[in-house]
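hey can u run this one w/ S-adenosylmethionine bound, need the structure tokens asap thx
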Amino acid sequence: MKIHKLLYLYLMLEKFLEKVLVLSRKDKVFEDTNPIVRAFEFNENVAHVFDDMAQRSIPHYRDVQSMAATLALTFYQEGSRIYDLGCSTGTTIALLLNGLKDHNLSNYYIKGIDSSAPMCREAIEKISSIDYEKDRILIEEGDILEEPIENASVVIMNYTLQFIDPLKRENLIKKIYRGLNHNGILLVSDKTLQSHTDISRIFVDNYYNLKRKNGYSELEISRKREALENVLIPYPIREEEELFRICGFEAVDLFYSWYNFSSFICLKKGQ
Ligand SMILES: C[S@@+](CC[C@H](N)C(=O)[O-])C[C@H]1O[C@@H](n2cnc3c(N)ncnc32)[C@H](O)[C@@H]1O
Ligand SMILES: O=C(O)C(=O)C[C@]1(C(=O)O)C=C[C@@H](O)C=C1
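ok here u go:
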């Protein structure tokens, strides 16, 4: 066989394998071919397809990630720690790492914490393809309610606070406030409620339209809604802002908002 024919076959095979890999990582957790999930969990099945799930279920996921990384780099203090609480597959950490490298910052320490072992494995695999000093990043399987926060200039908690027992949220935010250096920030993204139920309903309708547009069926949408009941507990935006304020943050603002999803920046002011 001629060499160019062999090369062509090789390229076709590579494309085919790429497609198989992408398809195997497609979120089918709530499809009718799979057993019903009663209560949503970040288990092996979810971790394996989480990147696809997040991109198709979280509005403007990539934009929020990149805005959070930009803000983190703006407030990062040389020699301090950056925490990613509920780091899942390490997407934010990978972005941060690339940003720190672009800015020639080398004296950093990043800690990603997640209570799901399969998520931690995915995160470790994702960042393994990036060149960095190994002792500058730690991905730890642990409970963010238990883990200490120390010498932090940036704490990121994207789409994680919504999964924490509401009775434990205040202590967690107070602990983060105490662990932050002055002029440090907490970035939080969550699904939120509006101040009036009529408006909340319309925003949720728009959210489900986005899921339909992103390829989820009615069955997948309703199965996931049921599985998330009492697992993901959203707060009204004003209440979430108030929570950050009563825990000490002197300045609280939105850095991103899309119908029923909001991203907050909370600043611990200087002395
Ligand atoms: C929606 S995902 C977060 C997504 C991720 N931050 C991102 O932006 O791609 C929520 C994560 O929080 C983790 N989680 C939930 N409760 C936790 C806890 N108490 N301690 C640590 N991780 C927790 C879950 O295992 C899950 O990986
Ligand atoms: O509320 C929903 O239906 C979602 O799918 C949202 C959401 C989230 O915001 O974390 C829930 C679980 C997954 O982690 C991805 C997206």
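The chain has one domain: 44-268. anyway lmk if its weird
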